[in-house]
Amino acid sequence: MPTTAYPRDILIVGAGLGGLAAGIALKTDGHKVTIIDSAPEFAEAGAGIRVPPNSSRLLLRWGIDLEKMKKSASRRYHFIRWENGSTIVKLPFENIVESHGAPYYLVHRADLHTGFLEAAKRAGVVIHTNKRVIEYDFDAPSVKTLQGEVWKADLVIGADGIKSVARPLLTGQPDVPRDTGDVAYRILIPGKDLLADPDLESLITDPCTTSWCGPDAHLVGYPIRDGELYNIVVCATSYNETTDEVWVVKGDNRELCERFAKWEPRVQKLCRLTRDFMKWRLCDLPILSRWVHPSGKACLLGDSCHPMLPYLAQGAAQAVEDAAVLRQCLAAQKDLGVALKQYESIRLPRSSLVQEKTREHQYILHIEDGEEQKARDVRMALNSQENPVFWGYDDRRNWLFSHDAEVLNEDGANWKPQGHAVKAH
């Protein structure tokens, strides 16, 4: 791994997956890195998360021990009909490493976060909890916490998520995340409960990612922790469960069973096995006009600048790509402002395209039964540009999964997809 010729003192606000990835990558290069986070402590939370090849190659390279982590590997992506479980299309994933140069893992988010934390501490990143940032001075640059502490650095990175405090201050634009009208139910079921049912056991013993597509909702399920748990994410039209102030609320078994009472028998059984779960309001942002402050001393990263809906499973992966590109730009440029503008010019178009395609999939996967749905199902089986699933077509899947964010072309061509233009708002 290279060591930068231009070591800097870097402060990262936010110790989520994006902030930790940036900390690991930048500390490995020889920068002094401090991360501060508002959480009092890091506790196990969340559910499953997919680690596609465009991020796993970087994590393995940076010393994050994915091998020892309890996980599953998807053998295929199986799209099926909601009412009878019939196959729409099976996309084989058996040759992921041969095809894309890195594995595709299914893990628990808490395990991945722990792996990031361990790698960051081994690298020498200094991490402080219970530090809520309330003010930014991007010209200094510095931040001020609720406790009145002032933290100074050469570079401040805002990695504080979709509700970022840094973002509206840095962009100078009104900051209103867009409510998609959907909520996500994040569900975990003990694997042994599925193994006890002949209709469900193959969901554990023959691991794949299963997506049930239906009107106004779809469910994505896959095993994690070596089959100890079965993870389900339900993306469905909101019944006004959340508010602008409260984005996360509790759900229960009864309402889940009622909502999916007419879906195929396996879905009904999974609903009956579900205990209490959390429902998350799904929001994203319009594409930002900039990620870098005019001072050239501060930037955004991850969900703070391109929050991803869960439909393409690329949220964390795109944050990891941000960290990789930022690392290379800081290593190559003596002038910090030039380095940050290069980072923005490379990453903003690529992540914005993924962000836009992710939002399109909200509609694609929730089409009402009828002629449009039948035509969609036919196109989903085609290995061509007509396939509405972004990575259902080989060329687009290669563009997404085979990408190595640490390989920068001089003109930024590593992010230029053919036939796509992305506009900032």
From TrEMBL:
Superkingdom of origin organism: Eukaryota
GO molecular function, one term: monooxygenase activity
Domain FAD-binding positions: 9-354
InterPro entries, A to Z: FAD-bd, FAD-dep_Monooxygenase_BioMet, FAD/NAD-bd_sf
Entry keyword set: FAD, Flavoprotein, Monooxygenase, Oxidoreductase
PANTHER family from the UniProt entry: MONOOXYGENASE, PUTATIVE (AFU_ORTHOLOGUE AFUA_2G01950)-RELATED
Membership in a protein family: Belongs to the paxM FAD-dependent monooxygenase family.
Record's protein name: Salicylate hydroxylase
Species this chain originates from: Lineolata rhizophorae
